Amino acid sequence: MNNNLLAAAVQQYINANLTADVNQIALSKSPFEGITSGELATQITAKKKSEKKLPTWFKTADIYYPPVLSIEQTSSEITAQYKSKLAKGESLIDITGGFGVDSYYFSKQVTNVTHCEINSELSAIACYNAKALNAHHITFEATDGINYLNASEKKIDTIYVDPARRAEKGKVFMLKDCTPDVVSIIDTLLEKAQRIIIKTAPLLDISAGLSELKQVSEIHIVSVKNECKELLWVIDRVCNQDTQIIAVTLNEAEKQFSFKKSSIQSPVGFSNELQSSGYLYEPDAALLKSGAFNLIGSTYGLLKLHPQTQLYTSPDINKAFPGRIFQITEILTTAALKKAGNLTGNVIVRNYPAKPEDLVKKHKIKPDKDQFLIFTKVASGDNVILKASIIQYY
């Protein structure tokens, strides 16, 4: 850490230049002795990236920011707060501590939190910021988390780990492609703690993860504004083998769709006839990631449009549904669409043989904020176009 960056004048400069051209700042001569222009640019860029993702850090005075990559890789506050409720007991070790966002929120639920980070610079930054944030229940260890765990004789109730994909890998779909390789050490972790929480990227395949890991009690699929942010694997020393899967949406209100893995193939009804005054439901990304397409319909009392179309309908509105809800105003066939003129609406394509941009161009469709044209397929196999207005975004 360069403590010169914490001087009052430097902090004022950083705050005054949050909307400035950081490239220009990086190329200019630094106005402060003992501070490079690159360090100033890094602080400004990292703080700007924290404004929406980490509002508590952004609003707190004299926060020291790490390289931008650490901000990009860290949990957002909203997801960190959610996962903190999954901790068990009074003691937790975060073996991949990073910038310390998860540890901060765990410390609000657990009496004793240990933050392990092998990068000594990042460990020092997280430790300093914890004091600035008045987080007093966290011990910081600048060491490899696995080594610390193996050497520790502390009582541990929960272990949290956020494995990173290996540098040589592209998109990661298997846990064995991450570091640390939790698959190879899961037995050791379970000897140390009664609960393990593993955070992974949403791209990780759920079936593959279940086959790699042992004793998965719960899988939490976490979404914010219809974007899957992370998967949380809860592994308990004593667990029910029928894994609970929870798709959770964290927006203005938290909504959950929860089920046992054994019930994923629940039967579902199909809509024989759409109603022009009915409602169309499109599940949030977290629900779609769960793969429980039939169960979504039976849980919320909805009928599916088509076996390969993840859209549902009902004559009634249910705002507890985690996802978008549209009110259908008109149903068009493809033949009727060709004759229609002055079409407006945002184009959505679901299981329809054309791309949105091609349809917009072909039918000269003008955009509209709240009106939609939904191109899809129904149970009969016919292609239909639904004119609809948006009732609920999330």
3D architecture notes:
It contains 15 helices and 18 strands. The protein has helices at residues 8-16, 22-27, 37-53, 55-59, 68-73, 77-84, 101-106, 120-132, 145-151, 182-192, 206-212, 285-290, 293-300, 334-339, 356-363, and strands spanning 91-94, 112-116, 138-141, 158-161, 164-165, 178-179, 195-200, 216-224, 227-236, 244-250, 254-260, 279-283, 303-306, 309-314, 323-333, 346-350, 371-377, 383-392. The protein has a 9-stranded mixed β-sheet, with helices on both faces. Strand 2 (112-116), helix 8 (120-132) and strand 3 (138-141) form a beta-alpha-beta unit.
Short description:
This protein is of the alpha/beta class.
Q: Uncertain runs with pLDDT below 50, 5 residues or more?
A: none
How many DSSP helices? 15
Q: What does the average pLDDT come to?
A: 93
Give a quick account of the main beta sheet: strands, pairing sense, barrel closure: 9 strands, mixed
Strand order of the largest sheet: 3-2-1-4-7-9-8-10-11
Radius of gyration: 25 Å
Could you tell me the number of beta strands?
18
Share in β-strands: 25-35%
Structural class by helix and strand composition: alpha/beta
| Residues in helices, as a percent range | 25-40%
- The span between the termini is 41 Å
Shape: globular
